[in-house]
Write a structure and sequence with these properties.
The chain is an alpha/beta fold. It is 42% helix and 15% strand. α1 packs parallel to α11. Residues 265-269 have low confidence and may be disordered. The chain binds 2-phosphoglycolic acid. 2-phosphoglycolic acid is lined by residues 10, 170, 175-176, 179, 215-218, 236-240.
Length: 269
């Protein structure tokens, strides 16, 4: 259980340059009064938007980052973007391993591991996304899949780098407009598996300190029942966050709920 809540969004390819900047500006002004003691809010935008976005006045709660990064060490990957360049642009964070990249673009755990290592060594916070497909879920191998992805993608990460790590569980069957309904208890079980695996990899103290975020069709109707689960430390939103007012409302609804009801006895406000 973490002492703050984690929210993130990835706008994918849904917005152009000006729409992205207007969105970010609106979100910043709506979220300006929220304290970093209460939450971390990460926004992952397409590469061309990152430089002008960095020039905006972002609140301390907000991490700005890219949706992808190249993990290769030499320069011979035309069209790719290295971690050091993102760092030079003043980025705080980066996503690695989103299920659309794994399943539509064929990204492997080995490639994702290189991205994770390269981003961490450039000082970026990494949102490592892990996910099982509908077929893996049906075959009852979700936990095995998640454990393998975690162990492969985190190979070589040192204990000291884990403070820059967030794990994003985003099952592919739960993402996007044709997705299946999300069951909070199902997510809680997967998060318990992820937590146990992180404790195996890094020891109990460090493994318990890495925030676990759930993403996949999160919206105003299911956000509270998801955050009520003790092993869910935060929420990753796609479509429901792409309207800044809606995202802000969901964030505040969750913060108020947690303040009033707590999460396994915690009281954050
Ligand atoms: P969704 O997307 O909330 O629109 O399902 C989630 C994601 O891909 O991060």
């Amino acid at each position: 259980m973490q002492n703050k809540l984690y929210f993130c969004t990835n706008t994918k390819m849904a917005k152009g340059l000006y729409e992205s900047l207007t969105y970010l500006e609106t979100l910043c002004s709506l979220a300006a009064d929220l304290s970093t003691d209460l939450l971390e809010l990460a926004v992952m935008l397409p590469y061309p938007v990152l430089y002008p976005a960095r020039k905006l006045d972002l609140p301390d709660t907000m991490l700005l980052g890219a949706q992808n990064v190249c993990g290769e060490a030499d320069y011979t990957f035309t069209g790719e973007i290295p971690a050091f360049l993102l760092s030079e642009l003043g980025m705080d964070c980066v996503m690695a391993g989103h299920s659309e990249r794994r399943h539509k673009l064929g990204e492997t755990d080995t490639e994702i591991n290189k991205k994770v290592l390269s981003a961490l060594s450039s000082g970026l916070t990494v949102f490592l996304s892990i996910s099982e497909t509908a077929e893996e879920k049906k075959a009852n191998i979700s936990d095995e899949t998640l454990r393998i992805q975690l162990k492969r993608c985190l190979a070589g990460v040192s204990h000291t780098q884990t403070s820059h790590l967030r794990i994003l569980y985003e099952p592919s069957w739960a993402i996007g407009k044709n997705s299946s309904a999300v069951q909070p208890v199902y997510v809680e079980k997967r998060h318990q598996t992820i937590r146990n695996c992180l404790c195996e990899c890094f020891g109990k103290k460090v493994g318990s300190s890495i925030p676990l975020i759930y993403g996949g069709s999160v919206n105003a109707d299911n956000a509270l029942s998801l955050i009520d689960q003790p092993h869910i430390d935060g929420l990753g939103l796609g479509r429901s966050a792409w309207d800044a007012e809606n995202f802000n409302q969901i964030i505040r609804q969750v913060l108020q709920h947690v303040n009033y009801f707590g999460r396994s006895g915690s009281n954050l406000l």
